[in-house]
Specification:
Layout (H helix, E strand, L loop, with lengths): L8 H7 L12 E11 L2 E7 L4 E6 L4 H6 L7 E12 L2 E16 L8 H7 L8 H4 L2 H11 L2 H4 L20 E9 L3 E5 L2 E11 L5 E7 H7 L8 E5 L2 E4 L11 E5 L4 E4 L30 E10 L3 E4 L6 E10 L4 E8 L1 H4 L1 H7 L6 E10 L5 E12 L4 H12 L7 E2 L22 H5 L10 E11 L7 E4 L7 E3 L5 E3 L4 E3 L3 E12 L2 E8 H8 L3 H9 L6 H9 L3 E13 L2 E12 L3 H18 L1
Parallel strand pairs: 3-5, 9-12, 17-19, 17-20
Antiparallel strand pairs: 1-2, 1-4, 2-3, 4-5, 6-8, 6-10, 7-8, 8-9, 10-13, 11-12, 14-16, 14-18, 15-16, 16-17, 18-19, 21-26, 21-28, 22-26, 23-24, 24-25, 26-27, 28-29
Helix pairs in contact: 13-14
């Protein structure tokens, strides 16, 4: 009996589409036919033996398909679904399934009506739908419910994951997890105003809502951070990747006719935070990109709070740096700003000796000191989260991680691709590719790998700066003695020197100038800036300083570089910055040459 579909199940689905949205729908068992992926979802034909209907499964069920719980020709029980028109084909419908469960694995063949007729086996819908009308059921449920719950029963709430642009009417229940400021604009259509909110439902799914002009003025004061709302009569469209701030294929637009009602006097919910973790050794590809990332790591160290002067308004804002490590044996510095620096940051400082695991959502990846992370206004920090990833990471750290030697992700990039930063053998170009394209890096930084010789290092350039030993930022001489750090807001008697130098590099196609910072410059010169400064100050027959620079020239390296544009005297110029340096791996270089030869033969 378990290998059975509900008799006339599709007809029941179609007849129930006009029921009040709050009605409890009958459970129906159908066969999955022609299961196939479409984007991040799966479509299939729901088959009851007599009729078929197009259907779509949400992305949340992808794992069950991959694991084999839901199979082609298998049976599923529909627990929650909606029926919508197919755009441009008003006579055709499709079913959007928001909740279902596997009943049986794949059958030998597709179920046909004549085959099922001989067995006479059906799984009937819930009995109350036979004996009572939908309105009777709702009235009984409302009568038995507490007053605070009756309002919620008048509508059927859709999970965000089920929404799509082709859907008809829907109602969502969401919490405002981020609210933007009201912005004004002036374009060819005239002046206007706009603001955005980030909305999260109980399952942790997020969507960005946008309101323009009259709708923006109507709803700006109504939406309050942290409150829960029922929203309906909005529209959806594909999200613009350039401006989207959450992980969702769609974005929502509300107009002045949309309905936004605060869910007061009801049981509230705290949205589950959904993370999409990026391992620390894979952060390289996100540097200076618009994508926000989530990270999880073990706290290695926590700095004191620093006060940083903001450039645009000269306001002093608090900042705190924490260093995280993960199983890739790489570390990264995360800068916490504002309330996160003084609140959770202080909590982390107090428990730093215990090396807690923290998960952080919505981080910006920058290139300060190679690769660094920074919180923004909507970042969320969870200490010791109750998740499989956190437990696995903590077990690894307690077993072996605490004794393992770690290296900073920004300290250099190896010639292999296994450290997440791009391989020195990907995006390989000659110097002429960069110098002959002066517009490279105009819109955003671009990254390449190249093999070149250091051909000249100017000995009379300013090769280093005095740096704070805590934060590595530039210090100035104090009035009495010692050095003052504006970042840490403190004075120290000593400082360190850190490289910031220009060097000329050459290959068979040309030459250009690279800018190299401390970690990369140390690999090129072969000593620290303090050591080179000592050699420069020494007197003797042999100038050890000049000798050291000569030893560094005409040596070949693999460089990972970033190309961007900077403005100087109202003129835009290319700036090429060294992101990583590696010695030549001649075996790998030989394999690369053989690949190029093979490609050339194929093209001929």
């Amino acid at each position: 009996m378990e290998n059975s579909v509900t008799q006339d199940g599709i007809a029941t689905v179609l007849s129930n589409q006009s029921l009040d949205s709050s009605s409890v729908r009958p459970d129906i068992v159908v066969q999955v036919v022609d299961l196939k992926p479409v984007g991040n979802r799966y479509t299939f034909n729901a088959n009851d033996g007599k009729m078929k209907m197009k259907a779509m499964l949400p992305a949340t069920l992808t794992s069950e398909i991959i694991s084999g719980k839901i199979q082609n020709l298998g049976l599923i029980r529909l627990l929650d679904y909606t029926v919508n028109d197919i755009p441009g084909k008003s006579e055709e419908k499709y079913m959007l399934i928001t909740k279902c469960e596997a009943v049986a694995s794949a059958l030998d063949s597709e179920i046909k009506a004549e085959i099922k007729a001989s067995t006479g086996i059906t799984l009937k819908p819930k009995q109350e739908f036979v004996a009572k009308s939908a309105s009777q059921i709702i009235n009984e449920q409302r009568g038995n419910a507490a007053p605070a719950a009756r309002m919620a029963m008048t509508r059927r709430v859709h999970p965000l994951v089920s929404l799509n642009p082709y859907q008809g009417s829907w109602t969502i229940k969401v919490r405002v997890t981020n609210k933007g400021v009201m912005r004004t604009y002036n374009n060819a259509r005239g002046e206007g105003c706009v603001f955005n909110v980030e909305l999260t439902d109980e399952e942790g799914t997020q969507i960005q809502g946008t309101m323009f002009n009259a709708a923006a003025r109507k709803f700006y004061d109504r939406f309050e951070m942290g409150k829960v709302y029922y929203i309906s009569r909005g529209s959806l469209k594909l999200a613009n990747k350039q401006f989207k701030t959450v992980q969702n294929d769609y974005e929502m637009t509300l107009n002045e006719n949309s309905e936004v009602e605060e869910a007061s006097n009801e049981e509230m919910f705290t949205p589950e935070i959904k993370f999409n973790f990026v391992p620390i050794d894979e952060l390289g590809t996100y540097v200076n990109q618009k994508d926000l990332i989530d990270v999880i790591g073990v706290v290695q160290s926590v700095s004191p709070t620093m006060s940083i002067r903001r450039k645009n308004d000269n306001e002093m804002i608090p900042k705190r740096d924490i260093t995280l490590a993960d199983e890739s044996k790489k570390t990264v510095v995360v800068s916490l700003w504002n309330d996160l620096a003084t609140g959770i940051g202080q909590e982390l400082l107090d428990m730093a000796d215990n090396h807690p695991v923290i998960a952080i959502k919505s981080l910006k990846v920058g290139d300060f000191q190679g690769i660094s992370l920074s919180t923004i206004s909507r970042s969320n920090v969870v200490i010791n989260p109750d998740s499989p990833e956190a437990k696995k990471l903590k077990s690894w750290y307690d077993a072996e991680g605490k004794e393992t030697s770690m290296s900073a992700i920004g300290s250099g990039m190896s010639s292999s691709a296994n450290n997440g930063s791009r391989s020195m053998y990907s995006d390989r170009v000659f110097l002429s590719h960069i110098t002959s394209n002066p517009s490279l890096g105009e819109e955003k930084p671009v990254f390449f790998s190249t093999r070149a010789y250091v051909s000249f290092i100017k000995p009379d350039q300013t090769m280093w700066y005095r740096a704070c030993k805590t934060c590595n930022k530039k210090v100035t001489e104090a009035i009495d003695s010692g050095y003052w750090c504006e970042g840490c807001q403190k004075k120290d008697q000593d400082c360190s020197l850190r490289y910031i130098m220009a060097l000329k590099v050459s290959d068979s196609t040309g030459e250009t100038w690279f800018s190299a910072f401390n970690d990369e410059a140390e690999k090129i010169i072969g000593c620290t800036a303090d050591e080179l400064n000592y050699l420069k100050s020494e007197e003797g027959e042999v100038n050890e300083f000049q000798t050291k620079l000569k030893e560094a020239t005409w040596s070949s390296h693999l460089f990972r570089i970033g190309v961007s544009q900077q403005e100087y005297n109202s003129e835009k110029r290319q700036r090429i910055t060294v992101r990583g340096v590696s010695p030549i791996d001649f075996a790998a270089e030989t394999r690369l040459l053989l690949q190029d030869i093979s490609k050339n033969k194929t093209s001929q």
